[in-house]
Structure formats: C-alpha cells, structure tokens
Amino acid sequence: MAAPFGGRGAYMNLFDVYPLFDxxxxxxxxxxxxxxxxxxxxxxxGGHAVISVGHAHPHYxxxxxxxxxxxxxxSNSVQNPLQKELAQRLGKACGYEDYQLFLINxxxxxxxNAMKLASFYNGRTRILSxxxxxxxxxxxxxxxxxxxxxxxxxxANGHVTYxxxxxLPAWKTEIEKGDVCxxxxxxxxxxxxxxxxNAQFLQGLRALCNEHNIVLICDEIQCGYGxxxxxxxxxxxxxMPDMITVAKGICNGFPMGGVLISPKFTPIYGQLGTTFGGxxxxxxxxxxxxxxIESEKLVENAATVGKYLIxxxxxxxxxxxxxxxxxVRGQGLMIGIELDIPYxxxxxxxxxxxxxxxxxxxxxxxxxxPPLCLSMADAEDFIVRFKKVL
Length: 390
Ligand SMILES: Cc1ncc(COP(=O)(O)O)c(C=O)c1O
Hints:
Elements: E1 25-29, E2 32-35, E3 40-43, H1 46-49, H2 58-70, H3 81-94, E4 100-104, H4 107-122, E5 126-130, H5 139-143, E6 160-163, H6 168-175, E7 180-185, E8 188-189, E9 195-196, H7 199-212, E10 215-219, E11 243-246, E12 257-261, H8 280-295, H9 298-318, E13 325-331, E14 334-339, H10 344-352, E15 356-357, E16 359-361, E17 365-368, H11 376-387
Parallel strand pairs: 3-15, 5-6, 5-7, 7-10, 10-11
Antiparallel strand pairs: 1-2, 2-3, 4-12, 8-9, 11-12, 13-14, 14-17, 16-17
Helix pairs in contact: 2-8, 3-8, 6-7, 9-11
The structure holds pyridoxal-5'-phosphate.
C-alpha cells in the first residue's frame, strides 16, 4: 500500500528500545488489569511502581474528569491554587510542612532539578551516588545512575563518583576532599535490586553533609509515597534530607514529579522552571491520590500487607517450599525475591500461565511493586501462583 502524502513508501515505526511482552493492557481496576482479549491479571508490578491507589479508582477518575472538563492546563505565569493546595496537603501527609514544593513531570526531571538547585546553593559540581543507583535518564540524572550502558558520551562529564552502599568510610574519604556538592541516594534501591540503606550509614552521611555544607538528596521516586510502609523510606532511618524527590505514585500514572525543598533554600525567580509541571490536571489527580491514601489508609496497608508477604515468603523459603529462592528482602510493598537462577523463565511463566505481573531487577531478582491497595487475599493469591512457577 502506498504511503499517504507521497512519502518514502513506509509508515513510521516506534523507536524500538523496549523488549516487550506480547500483551496489550486494555483496562484496570484496583490491583487487577485485563488484556485486550479480556484475560484478567493480578498486578504485582503497578506499571513499575507507578499505580499507588489502584487502577481506575472512582474518586481519582472523577477528580481528573471534572478538572479536564473545566481547565486542563494553564501556564506557570499565573496563580494556580491547586498547586498551593497540593503543597499544603503533601506537606501535612508526609510531615514536611515547612518544606517547599517544586513540581515537574517525571522522576528524572525531579532529580535533575534537585541536583541543579544543590549546585546553585553551594557553587560546587561534584555528586556522590551509590553503586547500582538509578536516578533517571536525563543529563545529570543519568550521570548519577551507575550504569555505563545508558550513559551517553555527552552525559559522561565526570561529575559523579559511585560508592558502595552502606560503606560510610568510603563516602567520608570522598566528602573530606571538600568539593562535593550533593549526595543522592535511594534508601531502598529499586532498579539496583531492593538493596536497603541502613540507619547508621544514613545518619553518618547526614552528619558529614552538615559538616561540609553538602546537600543530601533522597530519591524517593520509587520507594516513596507510602510504598515502604511509611510515607518516605528515609523516615524508617531517622534522618531528614535537604531535598526529597518524588514521581511515580504521586499521580497514579499521570506524569508528575516533585522536589520537596528544605526551608534553607531560598527560591530565586527564573532559576528553575517548566512549561507543563504542576498543571491543573496533574494537581487535581495528585490531590485525589492524597485523599485516597488518607481515607483508605494505604500507607498502613502497605506496611501490613508488605510485612505479611515478606514474612510468609521468608518462612516458606526457610521451610524449603520455594525452590530457587535464596533471599527475600524489602520493606512494605517494595519487595525483592532473589533467585539462584535467572528470573526470566519464572517471571514469564507468572505472566503467561499464572496471569500475574511482577517487576524484575538485574538478572536474578523478581521485584514486587504492587498498588498500595493490595489486599491480604491478593497477597495470598500471589504466593499460590508464585509457587506454581518455581
Ligand atoms: C529511584 C528512581 N529514580 C528516578 C527514576 C526516573 O523516573 P522517570 O522514569 O519518571 O524519569 C526512577 C524510575 O524508575 C527510579 O526508580
């Protein structure tokens, strides 16, 4: 068939960067999704930790629908009361009422702006990041990501030193060189395979940052917004960061990111900015997400159901009932199941035979990142399905 408009005889293809499962998800409800043939799946993946309050939650759908019918977008050159309301509500929900909120559209953008603001603040250019860290794919965010395969030559600017997680002496040695601008850290590494920061390390890092005027940034894009069983994962560790970056669950799938900024930073007109960030539609969705997190006690639910999953999987592993499982780790509904074989076959069988989505990490870790409304029955159901593929 000839191409329309007299083109070169071809239709535009997608730029093929994703290895895809041959499944198209057509609708969702709570912790379930359905493909275009009507097959139901249990969703222990949440579209990569994005679905916080569940698919197609009626309150969220209503809030977004009403807002888009009224005003989807207007620019950041006029007052947007929804942004102010979101800042106040978020501050109250997470216990950082005296912090300031800057809104953007994605996780990478949140980290990019946090590191940029840190550099404006202390005038320095060096970042410390953890081995296996993932902070996004834009310029400085990807440089802070410890994966040379995704850092293009143009992003390899020598700003970042990667250090072993929880090895305080190694970080101290670098910090004492006196030129570090910021430390960026995920308190539970996601892409890195559910590796957890310990309290002693983070508290030591906080003290060193204070001593050397270094900005401590906690990347809570995956582990935050209730997923760990507290609003933020660092709140398990007794430390307050200077900046906290959020995205994924903040708007249940509508693209949005945020930087929570300590009062010690003074905003300067024009220093940061965005066209779409904090738009009316996103704010309405994010406010609905907070309503649901509060009314359905989803942070508490993540703690309870997550503990049940971790405890049960650990007990089953120790009893020898989970062949190939060598470790179960995590907090709340952010769980890693490490296998002594590649995850590929069991994960694929989980999807194809058991109709259950999970995430993965590295070569051997199955990652559970379900919506925060996962019920105890869904958790039990997952364990039954998981056993069948081992
Ligand atoms: C911890 C962490 N930081 C940053 C990002 C980047 O977020 P985005 O893909 O929205 O840019 C991700 C995404 O997976 C993440 O897990």
